[in-house]
Amino acid sequence: MILSEKTASQLSALYKEKKCAPDETLKSLGEAVRAKDARTRAYIQFDPSRARRRDVSKDAPLWGVPIAVKDNICVADEEITCASKILQGFISPYHATVIEKLLAAGAVICGRTNMDEFAFGSSCETSFYGPTRNPRDPGRVPGGSSGGSAACVADHTAIAALGSDTGGSIRQPASLCGVVGIKPTYGRVSRYGLVAFASSLDQIGPITKDVRDAALLLGVLAGHDPKDSTSANLPVPDYPEVLGRPIKGMKIGIPREYLSSGSGQSGISPAVQKAVREDAVRVLERLGASCREVSLPHTAYAASTYYIIAPSEASSNLARFDGVRFGFRHRGGKNLLEMYEKTRGEGFGAEAKRRIILGTYSLSSGYYDAYYLRAMKVRTKIKNDFDEAFKQVDVLLTPTSPSTAFKLGEKSTDPVEMYLSDIYTISANLAGVPAISIPCGIEERAGKPLPIGLQFMAKPFDEAALFQVAHAFEQHTDFHKKLGNVKE
Amino acid sequence: MIPTIGLEVHTQLATRTKIFCACAVEFGAPPNSRACPVCLGLPGVLPVLNREVFRLGLRAVLALKGTPSAVIRFDRKNYFYPDLPKAYQISQYAAPLGQGGFIEIASGEKIKKIRLNRLHLEEDAGKLIHDQSPDTSHVDLNRAGTPLAEIVSEPDLESAEEAVIYLTGLKAILKAIGVSDCDMEKGHLRCDANVSVRKTASDPLGKKVEIKNLNSFRAVKLAIQYEIRRQSEALEKGEPLFQETRLWDEARQKTFTMRSKEEAHDYRYFPEPDLVPFSVSAEEIEKERKALPELPAEKKERFVREYRLSAYDAGLLTQDLKIAELFEEAARIARDNKTVANWITGPVFSYLNEKGKAIEDLKLTPALLSAAANLVKEGKVSLQVAKEKIFPEMAETGRAPEAILKEKGLAQVSDDPSLEEWVVQVLKEHPKVVDDFKSGKETAAMFLVGQVMRKSRGKANPGRVQELIRRKLKADRTS
């Protein structure tokens, strides 16, 4: 029995039966990381001796379950880098609310995972600490920005991990690595302690080996936080309880704009198109759901809207990295201005600078109305599209990413090409709706099994519907087992 | 030359804790001891609005007769400076908490309405400390996140004097409604002035100059006067003026250029995504409006009506709630409004001015004040002695004026035989003045009274002295 290959719920059962103890799991993970992380480089830091846990009841939902954390979520007295040079040496004095919640639920916090710098990217290649590689094929990217979290879960060097999702940063790497990732409704999970990228879009969510673990973890993470004014004061349903409910009669919408038959969405790979539009639909219908096409008419504007709003907020959020109070500072500047310029010039990578410049431009006097304000108006239209669609159907079904994992370096020289790999995921952030990605197929490429992911989206705060349909699909298709995520 | 002036006043709201976190608002604490991760702008922190800040802001809007916004939103104002930890200030730009409103000021004979443009809420920045070493500066973020209301007037002021009267009135209102302590020494009230000058009323407004760093009423007055003079001279000489920001240099009593229009910041305002807009119900607004105490202007009207005071005296007595309370209670005890009013606008104010103290710093009670006023009225002591010898001790120690009077032997001399003796001596010493009086120069008598007062070291009853002198000289004239 290899404990690192277990899911959180499997571990809980084993602990209850006293078949193993949390320290053994940590030890097993340590061995797995030693053996495999040199290949993927999923972690920025993994040190079981620094594991955090609290003395809580063994009945706590995640008692003894190690959780890896994306390195943009604050853990008290630990370094946090956001995979950027500019935060080098900064140690957070406080826990993010999600860390408090995990500790209270008995989880063991262990390991900081790699990511695109400040979550800017879809390939994990912009990290100051070097790229993470896809465990399914180390020549390919794991996706991003939560690439490290998805890779370590897929590689069994973690039981489960936290990611953050601003435009697809949980779902796209989950898809490319063949694991489960959910972006909750905006406001479902506290952002306190998540280093902000785009405050109106960011959400923290779990990346797990199967749907059950995703439901288990989100149940712990979700809920109102007085420290985050944007967190919703709504009750959190018992998510694991919906698992196993039949989906007979569930109405599933397929946005025609997301598939190659629709307008303006070229670039979808035939394998992805078939896995989602044909195979997945067939499975869902066999399970009693009714699938039909719906329209999200403003989909074509989502990417341009996103790439105005997200960099605008980022340009402001990243202004605090100025060398004055923490992290990297260029020494030897002749005056304040030079200190600022050299600190930021040397501290930020190319993609971070690109987004700061884009955002600064969009917010500038004279351009604000044409860019930021217009983007905000289009955002409302995109949200209205979803409101309309959810009057007709319970959930929406789309691919998570237009293609399976691409090769390292393949898109890193062309930012627009890179941005388009988020084309199916960004609308959920703009509209604030919850979305989950689960494996739905495997594309063989040069003898390597590359996972295909599908995405379900639901109306705000209806994560339960996502777990219900995703779990039914998973149990019927068994891709979680075919990909080796869950072993008996 | 016609000056046009508008003021932007930043006032610190009297809350216990900061605007977006639970840190204490405290003046003079050790550097960075009142600063949490939110104040420090550490990665990952989020602001949470202190509802009391909103409530105080709303109170101020209502007291200033403005219209409260139905939805409360915040915006980010982006700029780099080491005292601004997030590199943006959370402020209100597109939708200020209050719009419109006015303050009435007495300018010369007439009452002038100074319109307000807006009142918005924002967080204060920290403070830079430069005097610790020659080549490093330090940042103290205790003040970062202190709640401020910025109150912007329309350009309705026309002189430095009017600006000061406006500020005095604004301060009185903010203090009366408990929104701010307005302690200028602690930076509770800070002011920027926009000043322009044009040749005639038919000319378009001149180039607007913003003067920053005005930390006292005196600085406001002197800086505006200086700026009006500077701009007028330039206009007269036909020299160009520029839209710019200038700083007041207290030491050199001059303004100097800080930045020109071209160097002005682009603050890239946009809606603060970390705070959710919320709406204010009409009931909430009405509740707050009903809870407003009597405002200085209303109090002033009532003082004129009820106590039959001049508008001027009533104005002076209603600028500070504590003073107004002292007056009302002392007048009730003394049963003499006018005398008590004179006492406060006279001895009390000049003492406070001279010592740089506030009324709260004194041990003066309404009972003590009315007792002192009665002593003078009953002729037991002269006003001058009461003011100079009795009042300071009474105000500082809280001792009864009668006791001080007795202890110091300051009782007024009205009937004492020595009074007559002093008069005779003075008349002897100043024969020339006596002659002047006899030849009809009335002011000569005043001089003689003064001399007797001097001999008595102020103890003589001046009315009685005058009477005696006139009687003596009249007797001489007829003899």
Secondary structure: elements and pairs:
The complex is a heterodimer of chains A (488) and B (479).
Chain A: H1 8-16, H2 22-40, E1 43-45, E2 66-70, H3 97-104, E3 108-113, H4 147-154, E4 160-165, H5 171-177, E5 180-183, E6 203-208, H6 211-221, H7 239-242, E7 251-255, H8 270-286, E8 290-294, H9 302-317, H10 336-347, H11 350-363, H12 369-392, E9 395-399, H13 415-419, H14 426-431, E10 435-445, E11 448-458, H15 463-477, H16 479-482
Parallel strand pairs in A: 2-3, 2-4, 7-8, 7-9
Antiparallel strand pairs in A: 1-3, 4-6, 5-6, 5-10, 9-11, 10-11
Helix pairs in contact in A: 4-5, 6-15, 9-11, 9-12
Chain B: E1 2-12, H1 37-40, H2 51-63, E2 67-68, E3 71-72, E4 75-78, E5 88-91, E6 98-99, E7 102-107, E8 110-123, E9 127-129, E10 138-140, E11 147-153, H3 160-176, E12 189-198, E13 209-214, H4 217-237, E14 244-249, E15 254-260, E16 270-271, E17 278-279, H5 282-290, H6 296-307, H7 311-317, H8 321-334, H9 337-355, H10 366-377, H11 383-397, H12 401-408, H13 417-429, H14 431-438, H15 443-455, H16 462-478
Parallel strand pairs in B: 13-14
Antiparallel strand pairs in B: 1-11, 1-12, 2-6, 3-17, 4-5, 4-16, 6-8, 7-8, 8-11, 9-10, 12-13, 14-15
Helix pairs in contact in B: 3-4, 6-7, 7-9, 8-9, 8-10, 10-11, 13-15, 13-16, 14-15, 15-16
Short structural summary:
The complex is a heterodimer of chains A (488) and B (479). Chain A has 488 residues and is of the alpha/beta class.
Description of the structure:
The complex is a heterodimer of chains A (488) and B (479). Chain A has 488 residues and is an alpha/beta fold. Chain A has a domain at 3-250 and 401-482: Amidase signature (AS) domain (Amidase signature (AS) enzymes, Alpha-Beta Complex). Chain A is built from 16 helices and 11 strands. Chain A has helices spanning 8-16, 22-40, 97-104, 147-154, 171-177, 211-221, 239-242, 270-286, 302-317, 336-347, 350-363, 369-392, 415-419, 426-431, 463-477, 479-482; strands at residues 43-45, 66-70, 108-113, 160-165, 180-183, 203-208, 251-255, 290-294, 395-399, 435-445, 448-458. Chain A has an 11-stranded mixed β-sheet, sandwiched between helices. In chain A, strand 2 (66-70), helix 3 and strand 3 form a beta-alpha-beta unit. In chain A, helix 6 (211-221) packs antiparallel against helix 15. The model of chain A has no long low-confidence stretch (mean pLDDT 96). Chain B has helices spanning 37-40, 51-63, 160-176, 217-237, 282-290, 296-307, 311-317, 321-334, 337-355, 366-377, 383-397, 401-408, 417-429, 431-438, 443-455, 462-478; strands spanning 2-12, 67-68, 71-72, 75-78, 88-91, 98-99, 102-107, 110-123, 127-129, 138-140, 147-153, 189-198, 209-214, 244-249, 254-260, 270-271, 278-279. In chain B, strands 1, 2, 6, 7, 8, 11, 12, 13, 14 and 15 form a 10-stranded mixed β-sheet that branches. The N and C termini of chain B lie far apart (65 Å).
